[in-house]
Amino acid sequence: MPTEDDAAKAEFAARLEAEEAKARTEMRSIRILWVLAAATLALAVVLWVGFGGRDQYIARSSGYDAQVLLPAWLALAGLLSAAAATVLGVIRLMRGALGNILQKQARK
User: What keywords are annotated for this sequence in UniProt (predicted)?
Assistant: First the structure.
């Protein structure tokens, strides 16, 4: 016959498993954001340096073409996705730390 302590342990194990599944999903989205940030920033640098964006930026005072604007927008997208990945990563770390505290308390 299951006791109250066994039922509490089973409930805690189920909650822990659900939290681990949620953590895996969150980490997957954070990794995707970091890959997106790296790819867009690398593409922006290649377009800026390799295809004349820097030269046009230096030569003209206004009215830029796609050689300047496309790398600028790509760099902005990369910075925004890196910022989003950082914020989500910090939230994940805080949630993990709180989960560790709860787990230690539950073991006592």
Answer: Membrane, Transmembrane, Transmembrane helix
Let me know how many helices (H) and strands (E) the chain has, helices first. Answer: 3, 0
Q: Which residues constitute the domain of residue 23?
A: 4-107
Give the pLDDT confidence of 49-108 residue by residue, as tens digits: 888 888 787 787 677 787 888 999 999 999 999 999 999 999 988 988 887 787 777 666
Q: How far apart are CA 29 and CA 36, in angstroms?
A: 10
Instruction: Give dist(CA 90, CA 84) in Å, integer.
Output: 10
Sign of CA dihedral 38, 40, 45, 47: positive
Interatomic CA distance for residues 38 and 59, integer angstroms: 28
> Is residue 1 scored above 60 in pLDDT?
no
Which of 23, 20, 19, 37 lies closest to 86, judged by CA? Answer: 37
Q: What's the rounded Cα separation, in Å, for the pair 7 and 2?
A: 7
When comparing pLDDT for 46 and 65, which is higher?
46
